[in-house]
Design a protein that fits this description.
- About 50% of the residues lie in helices and about 10% in strands.
- The chain is of the alpha+beta class.
- Strands 1, 2, 3, 4 and 5 form a five-stranded antiparallel sheet that branches.
- A hairpin with a 6-residue loop joins strand 2 (about 55-60) and strand 3.
- Helix 2 crosses helix 3.
- It starts with 9 loop residues before the first helix and ends with a helix.
């Protein structure tokens, strides 16, 4: 809201009229008082500064550390009981109050939304509000919101990158939904055949053949992978009791000639079963050659 000038008092107008018609020289006439600017919605205040204070300030943006340059016209008024007597002090107090209001709004705005920010500032700053407990009220008009070209390009680049990232995410969601749908379809030959027939209704004679293919495909897809074993051509050489082989040395120490026969028989049987279960019949045969009766009896 643009503040309006208040009319001059009647006594002042009469004096000026009399001085003009009586021929009083201009330098001796009563000076006209400074125009008063109405304080919006603040009847308890009276004017200190009649003229608007032009001021530029830097305000943060949502894309920190980039900033806005805000151009303002600021007015101020003070309460009757205010301790602020000098117009200069009131001016700076008003600037501080307006700056706080501008920063709170600008910090939530993007560098690409200068027009929207100016509209919001114009709406908020048109209301006269007290500046904390100072006894001064301040209101303003936002006359411009500026952003450096480099900062604007950086903000636009970031927004474009975010948009592309969201596009990739949505595309992947669509692909994943299609993959899940087809996976469920291939696990059910009946629905898979119906899905095929829906696009090939002139090929009814092929439905049985197609259904058989879908059944075979379901069985193949449902098949669990077999554990990897040792092929005959990939058999490992037998463990040799070399001095540097710690495992062989441990077995050799355990299988000492003074070993208890029961313990030796138990170890032989366990190793025999272990080698057989791990596709090492060559090692199992060697143990059988040493303890044939005990293993057969077990």
């Amino acid at each position: 809201m643009q503040p309006q000038s208040a009319p001059e008092p009647r006594s002042v107008r009469l004096r000026q009229w009399w001085e003009r018609i009586s021929g009083t020289p201009p330098e001796h006439r009563t000076p006209a008082p400074a125009p008063q600017v109405a304080v919006p919605h603040a009847a308890a205040y009276h004017q200190i500064e009649a003229a608007a204070d032009e001021w530029e300030m830097i305000a943060p943006s949502a894309e920190s550390p980039f900033t806005f340059q805000i151009e303002l016209l600021i007015w101020n008024a003070r309460q009757q009981q205010s301790s602020v007597q000098r117009a200069g002090n009131a001016l700076w107090i008003a600037r501080g109050g307006i700056a706080d209001r501008v920063k709170a709004i600008a910090a939530k705005a993007s560098l690409l939304e200068t027009a929207e920010l100016r509209a919001k500032l114009s709406k908020d700053l048109s209301q006269a509000r007290p500046v904390e407990q100072s006894g001064v009220a301040a209101w303003a008009e936002c006359t411009g919101v500026l952003v450096a070209d480099e900062d604007r390009k950086a903000a636009q680049g970031r927004r474009d990158a975010e948009r592309r990232a969201w596009q990739r995410t949505w595309q992947w969601d669509d692909e994943r939904a299609a993959i899940n749908y087809l996976s469920d379809l291939l696990s059910d030959p009946v629905h898979a055949t119906a899905w095929w027939f829906n696009g090939e209704r002139d090929k009814v004679d092929k439905m049985v053949e197609v259904a058989e293919h879908f059944c075979q495909l379901r069985d193949v897809l449902a098949r669990k992978p077999q554990p990897t074993g040792y092929a005959p051509e990939q058999r490992q050489p037998a463990v040799s009791a070399e001095p540097g082989d710690s495992l062989a040395q441990i077995v050799a120490d355990f299988d000492h000639q003074d070993l208890d026969p029961t313990a030796r028989e138990q170890v032989s049987r366990q190793l025999f079963q272990l080698f057989r279960s791990h596709n090492r019949p060559d090692l199992a045969d060697r143990i059988r050659a040493q303890e044939p009766r005990k293993l057969e009896a077990g």
